[in-house]
Amino acid sequence: MAEVGSGPSTAKADALARRLLELTDDLAERNRQLERALESRIVIEQAKGVLVARHGIVVDDAFDALRRGARSTGTKLHDLAARVVQSPQTPPEIERHLS
């Protein structure tokens, strides 16, 4: 009589359990990455809206000025966008790209 809990079926169950844990970890990390991306996108959209309202420009020009300002100073787009949203003044690195 075979012993319960031993043999090939137990090894298979252990392998499946390990694989499920790996997949769960991978999905949790992907979820964290997507949440960060969404939060970053929200701030960028808010900054575009602020620039449109402050300077009477179209959304595409607001994004271009934001992107160019970030690139010209080596600043992350999200960080510069956060400064736009938090400050009553437009950062100078963006001002110089508005025409």
Please characterize this protein's 3D structure.
The chain is built from four helices and no strands. The longest helix has 48 residues, at 8-55. The protein has helices at 8-55, 59-73, 77-86, 92-95. The protein is mainly alpha-helical and 99 residues long. It has one domain (9-95): Arc Repressor Mutant, subunit A, CATH 1.10.10. The termini are far apart. The model has no long low-confidence stretch (mean pLDDT 91).
Topology:
Blueprint: H1 8-55, H2 59-73, H3 77-86, H4 92-95
Helix pairs in contact: 1-2, 1-3
Q: What form results from the Cα inertia axes?
A: rod-shaped
Strand share of the residues?
under 5%
User: In the CATH hierarchy, what is the architecture at level 2?
Assistant: Orthogonal Bundle
CATH H level: which superfamily? Answer: Winged helix-like DNA-binding domain superfamily/Winged helix DNA-binding domain
CATH class: Mainly Alpha
Number of strands: 0
